[in-house]
Write a structure and sequence with these properties.
Elements: H1 11-29, H2 36-39, H3 45-54, E1 73-76, E2 93-96, H4 98-104, E3 128-131, E4 134-137, H5 142-151, H6 156-177, H7 181-194, H8 202-211
Antiparallel strand pairs: 1-2, 3-4
The structure holds zinc ion.
The site of zinc ion has 8 residues, from helix 4.
């Protein structure tokens, strides 16, 4: 998880947010049968494209790339079952991998919200400890622990993918530490790129490089 910044509201929502919200609330309160389109207004291409850009095509919660997955999920940060009035609210929409989306499900505790990477003062390092390929909650922090469990941040597939990424980056790190001159500068730049926000598991890689003595920018 890394801090994310919302793009400006897509035009399609500027035009339709109120209409689509009222339509949805009407369906729910009158127990009407919604059409597929009515149920999936938030999956509009303009919304999906904007979310893909602001998340760099990664899950907002586990930072795995989801572009290659066929059934991408647009996620309601606060579940629409809990707050249907946020059904097409731009600030409540993000992009997540199917596994985080399903794990999170309708998980909602009013007083202890799950971590939200768009919050103004959000810093992952204040809520999660990145220890090699694993991610651990901050001790005695209820929000951290709840989110860690809700997203299942150490599921095997994630740990394996993070481990593979660390092995790749570590090869470069070894090369950097045993090289001098221009070549070292070139490798150093490559290493800085490995933890840019566009890269998969950037928080894990950044912390891995930091604890191994690489000068993080
Ligand atoms: Zn995920």
């Amino acid at each position: 998880m890394i801090k994310l910044q919302k793009e400006k509201v897509p035009n399609i929502l500027l035009k339709n947010e109120l209409k689509w919200t009222n339509e949805y609330l009407n369906i729910i309160s009158n127990k009407l049968t919604a059409t597929k389109t009515q149920k999936e207004r938030y999956k509009h291409k303009q919304i999906k494209d904007a979310l893909l850009r602001e998340t760099s095509g990664k899950c907002a919660y586990c930072e795995s790339e989801v572009r290659s997955v066929t059934w991408e999920h647009i996620d309601h940060i606060i579940p629409k079952s809990i707050k249907p009035e946020l059904y097409v609210k731009w600030d409540n929409l993000t992009f997540s991998c199917p596994k985080c989306n399903i794990n999170k499900s309708d998980n909602y505790i009013k007083d202890i919200p799950l971590l939200n990477p768009y919050e103004v003062d959000f810093e992952a390092i204040n809520y999660l400890r990145f220890a090699g390929p694993t991610i651990m909650p901050i001790i005695d922090n209820a929000r951290s622990r709840l989110s860690y469990i809700a997203f299942d941040l150490n599921r095997i597939d994630l740990v394996e993918k993070r481990q593979n990424r660390i092995i790749e980056v570590d090869k470069l790190l070894q090369e950097w530490s045993s090289t001098i001159g221009v070549k070292k500068t070139v490798i150093e730049k490559e290493l800085h790129d490995t933890y840019s926000s566009k890269q998969e598991f950037s928080a894990t890689i950044k912390e891995y490089l930091r604890v191994n003595g690489f000068p993080i920018l």
